[in-house]
Amino acid sequence: MDSLTNLMSGFAGVFDPMNLVWVLVGCFLGTAVGVLPGLGSSMAVALLLPMTFALDPTAAFIMFAGVYFGGMFGDSTMAILMNTPGQASAIASTFEGHKMAKAGRAPQALATAAIGAFVGGMIASIIVVFLAPKLADFSANFGPAEFFALALFAFVATSSVVSDSAIKGLSALVIGIGLATVGIDSISGSERFTFGVPEMFDGISLVTVTVAVLALGEVFNVAARIRRDPKPEGIGKGGRPYLSLAEFKEALPAWLRGTGIGLPFGVIPAGGSEIPTFLAYDVERRLDRRRPDPQFGKGAIKGLAAPEAAGNATTGMAMGALLSLGLPISATAAIMLAAFQQYGMQPGPLLFERRPDLVWALLASFFLAMVVLLIINLPFAQYWAKLLLIPAPYLYAGITLFCGLGVYATSSSTFDLWLLLGIALVGFVMRRHGMPLAPLMIGMVLGPLAETSLRDGLLASDGDYSILVSGPIPITIYLALLLVIGLTLRQKLKSRKAADV
Questions:
Q1: Global pTM value
Q2: How far apart are the C-alpha atoms of 408 and 415, rounded to whole Å?
Q3: Nearest Cα to 140, choosing from 310, 294, 432, 352?
Q4: Per-residue pLDDT tens digits for 320-366
Q5: CA–CA separation, 436 vs 260, rounded Å?
Q6: Non-local CB neighbours of 347 within 8 Å, separated by 6+ positions
Q7: Can you spell out the DSSP letters for 84-95?
Q8: Closest Cα to residue 471, out of 152, 147, 155, 153?
Q9: SS3 letters across 311-345
């Protein structure tokens, strides 16, 4: 009952007129950026991060949540209409969704995606309301050993899962941790990797790294191939923008199965929604093979419904893990953790005690965001494709301008603009060589936590490393890490064998 009471107080905060405006703005911007190929919720949050410091924290995070969920809606819209997923989490939706669109069922495909995202996100939000406070109470038992184990879990699991090459994933992680170590050491007071440059004594800003890697790096990547990439072929609109009763009944079990698959991945640092969406698609494909008339390959509605529900269920649970444990499971969640830190807050049990107004208003905004996104996507999804009419040079020039303005507004330093350019080039090189970006962001955000926890634990134990594996919680985390690595290796070995056949 306490959770319900707190949630009602959160709704009272969200229904403040200005907060309602920020919910709408977040949902609109997230969807708008999501429908543009190559962009997505992570870039939207990255671009907005330096521009929201003038806002009240509650308003800022309500808007970020709308952007987070809205980006996934937009990604799916382009995956279905243009066969061009905005982010990797929407790739699974292209397989059957685009086939539905090519068969003249684009409105039904968009409706399936919108309702599936609504179902997955709403169920996840309900679970988070009751689960997040329990997780926060549980995380109150965490000390240096537990936090170090949790950070290590996020490092290794994310690096090994999100990339086909573990070396590339670990390399991206090392870059992120390396950027986090620049500056004055808080314990010894010595300079680290500053090269004697006074502007680097305070370290490299998370805002600069986020905008450089996710936004400006993507601009460079697009500019390098903009004349070589063919323009995706769109699908004309037509037909009824809703599902028949038979289609709804067919999609409902897939929505529920996809939600069940996506929920656990919201608390596992496995890179975000990519893995559960592919798992949900694979489950439906295997079930479809048992039917007398298999539909996969022809535009099966279940092949679209399950990944959409799985993706949003993971996103909703990821927000709960972020708030209660301070654990980001994707690049976008890592950016939001950086935003909390920029406001001087650290997600976890103390956040529930010190800022319950913000936490519960944010949780309440999840429900409102789901409804708003359903309203603006179910009837109008196809009109978002009109944004593709913006000439790419103008679009990406505008993004570049916002990158520079955002970073300069937070620091008023031209040196940070040079850093922005240099780190963006690093992000561009990473993209060209297939290196994942999520490990870099998670290394940058959780690197200081891992270092501080390790040093605090060793100082408290007089240099005894066994303290890092003492207690049931660290041991459980390390066992879970071994399980994730084992399953990842098994899956990659199976993929190689299948490729060799």
A1: 0.69
A2: 9
A3: 352
A4: 878 887 777 676 777 788 788 778 887 877 788 788 888 888 888 88
A5: 27
A6: 322, 323, 324, 325, 326, 337, 340
A7: --SSGGGHHHHH
A8: 147
A9: HHHHHHHHHHHHHHHCCCCCHHHHHHHHHHHHCCC
